[in-house]
Amino acid sequence: MSLVVFESVKQIHCARCRQGPLRLLVREAGVPRCLDCAGLGHLVYLPRGDAALTRRAREGSSLSAVVVRFNRRRRRHERQGLLVEDAALARAERACLADAEARARRRERDRARRAAQDVRFTAAFAAEIRRLFPGCPPERARDIAAHASLRGSGRVGRTAAGRALDEAAVSVAVRAAVRHTDTEYDALLMAGVPRFAARARLAPRIDAVLDAWRLPPQPPAPEPEPGSGAAAAA
Questions:
Q1: Does the first or last residue of the chain, that is N or C, have fewer Cβ atoms within 10 Å of its Cβ?
Q2: What does 170-204 look like in DSSP terms, one character per residue?
Q3: What are the residues facing 26 on neighbouring strands?
Q4: Contact 205, 211 (CB under 8 A)
Q5: What is the mean predicted confidence (pLDDT) over 59-84?
């Protein structure tokens, strides 16, 4: 279990030495303590962002602590970095410099592999949209699939259900696309209409579009033959 150090945004002082306000603190028995009083003052801060450097510094440090900060919007603590021994960080930096080129090549291969996976998945997502909604124009199906399956977006296509091409998840993506593209939903939100009220107001129109898309496209009407119909009668 990792030691946890908190990054504070409040004016907090150490309960023991009264030093402060503290940027980093440890909570012991429910009271704040500075890093020196907690026995962590000799550690150096390594911000997040370089996975290889973080991993090597943590593995090489006999004592380390995770630094977290509370995100009020998400109502959870999020990792900001790591406290490690100075010597361990120096060794980790030298190791990362030594194999930087090899790791860069590996990252490039990984990017290419992920890009190919994304292309295949987006195509499969679009095909599933067309299966569930055969009346959906092919270009709309591709646009919806690309939007819903964007890597790192957190949208429905990147959820476990979305990656499994679950019918409910695909339908949610299509409904969301219709809501934002074919109705004034976004304008209502900007005008201050509550989200649930806007969705309830627009639900019948969205359902009408989805119901139409669930039907296969109708073939075009045949062209009248020359000399038939009203022209022939005249």
A1: N
A2: HHHHHHHHHHHHSSSHHHHHHTT--HHHHHHHHHH
A3: 33
A4: no
A5: 93
In the DSSP assignment, the letter for residue 37 is: T
Whether residue 217 is preceded by a cis peptide bond, meaning omega within 30 degrees of 0, is: no
pLDDT per position as a tens digit, 105-123 = 988 999 999 999 999 999 9
- Dihedral, CA atoms, 107, 109, 111, 115, nearest 10 degrees? -170
* Cα–Cα distance for residue pair 145/121, rounded to 1 Å: 9
CA 82 to chain centre: 23
| CA gap 6, 23 in Å, rounded | 8
CA angle 95/99/103 to nearest 5° reads 120
32 neighbors 21 (Cβ within 8 angstroms) = no
Contact 82, 64 (CB under 8 A): yes
Residues present in the chain in total: 234
